[in-house]
Amino acid sequence: MKNDRPDDMPAEGHASLMRGRKFTAQELALMVLALLQQGPRHGYEIIKELKSASLGFYSPSPGALYPVLGQMVQQGHALVEAEGKRKCYRLSDSGRRYLESQAQAVQLIFTRLRHAAKKMLWISQNMDPEAATQATGWLPEFVEARRAMRSALFVRSEADQHEQRRLVDILNRAVAEIEQGAPAPGPAVPAAAKRRDAC
Fold first, then answer.
1. Where in the numbering of this chain does the Transcription regulator PadR N-terminal domain appear (predicted)?
2. Tell me: the pLDDT tens digits for 35-55?
């Protein structure tokens, strides 16, 4: 195996993956709505579930989450009840309708979250390709092929328009062939997000 990092993994590895903003406020709101669809939750529970689902890749800070929750309440997408010093958030009928209208976006966001979790697993096992494959389901050849494609496109970023058109044709054919065998999409929410009726 020429390179044991996933295709979009920077050379700095784990530290670089963990830095930077990973999801927008709107994307976070959609994830929260999807979790609330499973049942009411406290804010800290939402943070824990997203961190667990992504194996530590994404853990929204209270400073990021609570303004989003407040905005969701203002928009009528969520309801809030005080429970002592804590607040319990529930999905409203309006929020349910909005979530249904954004089903494709929600699916994509959680696909990104699961992909990030797999990258975390791959990094943790990067000295043992067999263990990495066992943990993620990714073959080393699959990871290397994606890396090689990314690298090939990167070194041609200054290509003239004639060459760009040639690359577009190649990529479009590859995409069409890949999509012919596309697997069924994964669940729209983390598997660990259990249904319940109360906080």
1. 32-100
2. 999 999 999 999 999 998 888
Element (H, E) at 181: none
Task: List, in order of start, the domains of the chain with CATH numbers.
Answer: 1-199 (1.10.10.10)
Question: Helix count (H) and strand count (E) of the chain?
Answer: 9, 3
The residue written with tokens 């494959």 in the block is 133
Q: Which of 38, 43, 50 is nearest to 113 (CA)?
A: 50
Q: What does the alpha-carbon distance between residue 112 and residue 58 come to, in Å, rounded to a whole number?
A: 11
* pTM score, whole prediction: 0.72
What is the C-alpha to C-alpha distance for residues 64 and 26, in angstroms, rounded to an integer?
11
Tell me the C-alpha distance between 26 and 29, whole Å. 5
Cα atoms found within 13 Å of the Cα of residue 31, Cβ hemisphere only: 32
